[in-house]
User: What shape does this take?
Amino acid sequence: MAVSVAANGFRWLDILEQEFDKTFVDLDLLLGEIDPDQSEITDEGRGKLTVLSSSWAQLVHKTQTLSQTNAKMEAQLIDTKAEIIETKAEKVAMQQQIKDIMAQLHASQLECQILKNQEIEGADTIRKRLVCHFKKITKFLLCTLFAFKEDQLNRQRSEFKRDAVWEIKANELEKENVKLKNSIINLQSEVYGSRLAAKYLDKELAGRYRNVFEQFSQLIRTHYPQLSVVGENYPPPVYKSVLAQCLSILKMLFLVCIVLGQNPFTIAGLATPSVFQWALQNKIYSCLMLFFFSNSIESFLMSTGAFEIFVNDVPLWSKLQTGHLPSAQDFLQMLQTFQNKENTIGGGGPNIGGMSSSSTFNT
Assistant: This one.
């Protein structure tokens, strides 16, 4: 897993480098469109671009070096973990084997005592230890109780080691799982904060659009009282609207299943994802997370950021094309220009009462 993260780091760096190159070329072309009389601005801008490109190249080089070092360290970390697990398993196997050898020694001492019909020091203690040990000893140990051959000891140690390896790996994975859960909780807290900030930003932007619409409407009523003003939401693309509706239905379905403790995957004959099992165990937290996450995606799908102005179905301004809102003076100038064109086409006359203005905006 660690090596894959390092590989993804190189891929991310390539993507960022491609984006930088594309943006650099766009800026260079944009500087080339500046009027020749203002060549000083072009020269200065291209000088800044040269410095920026040099800094970016050094940054990429240092990042590649760090990524390569990180990849090597991650590989070494994997090897070190494997060696630690191997060493721990060897230690457990040796300890278990020492216990077995001590039990065999005690049994030999008791046998000598019986043969010689004499007591040895600590005989009662040895008997008690043997009683407790023989309850736990396996059939294999009973068969090899008095066998001290090297090959038998090696096989015994290998068996102990094989069992210990899985137990140690399970313990290590459990510790890593706890760390990852804590990291996920911290990341989710940051994501929720970002989503709430984005949500409030969308509301603020929507309020700004509404204020601009009201301001423009008041300008029309003041300067062109004959015009009627109509405001409506700019429709998002059809596929985004369908995706938002499907997402809303899935959200409600999963919320109901989580609250009622039902598993739709079992009903459908599919394997239950671990995420859904966690959601069933943490209903309140998972419902809140699902609600905010799905709402943020729905808002993103339904939001267009548009502020389009039409007069008699003729577009006067498009924020989607220009990237910004018009000023009040620009808005009045656009209406005056449109009025002059209408009067020219219609044969003159100041009457513009037949026109209607529709300002379409989306929050």
User: Anything to note?
Assistant: Residues 236-291 form one domain. The two ends are 42 Å apart (CA to CA). The first helix runs from residue 2 to 32. Strands lie at 228-233, 307-311, 314-318, 356-361.
